[in-house]
Amino acid sequence: MDKRKKVSLLDKDILVVYYTYTGKTEVFAKELRAYGIRTLSIDESSVVNEPFILVTPTYSFGEVPKTVLAFLENNSDNLKAVMSSGNRNWGGNFAIAGDIVSKTYGVQLIGKFEMNGNKSDVEKLVSYIKGVDNH
Ligand SMILES: Cc1cc2nc3c(=O)[nH]c(=O)nc-3n(C[C@H](O)[C@H](O)[C@H](O)COP(=O)(O)O)c2cc1C
């Protein structure tokens, strides 16, 4: 089944889970909350028993953070889409964690953003959740 279609059919209240190490993704999540989106900061032992969208930074020369990998090992059944962050200074590895998660789990990569993200990055995810994005 096409998980992208599944997401657009979900209720508009889907949970956004995120990982942050140095706090930049937390700033992004705070902006999402300002739009009324529910968010949850995860660690390796988090358990999420409902559909969710993952927001993850990229670390260690183009890798998905180990904490996120451990989280997904237990929770990937409920993963519906991913958005990733990073820094363009990392060139071809920019926000590549999103590509890896998308490919590994067969879910849509909604987009990539730098550092805290900007208004348009936040609105991209909000639009996706509201189902008005062209997906
Ligand atoms: C050791 C280290 C490795 C990183 N590796 C990458 C990378 O491979 N690709 C990328 O796009 N960003 C990379 N970054 C940048 C982070 O993904 C970026 O700063 C992100 O916004 C951090 O999110 P956080 O503050 O929520 O942890 C790296 C940062 C550090 C400190």
UniProtKB/TrEMBL annotation:
Transmembrane regions: none
PROSITE patterns: FLAVODOXIN
Cleaved signal peptide residues: none
PANTHER family xref list: PROTEIN NRDI (PTHR37297:SF1)
Protein name: Class Ib ribonucleoside-diphosphate reductase assembly flavoprotein NrdI
Species of the source: Staphylococcus delphini
Lineage: Bacteria, Bacillati, Bacillota, Bacilli, Bacillales
Gene that this sequence comes from: nrdI
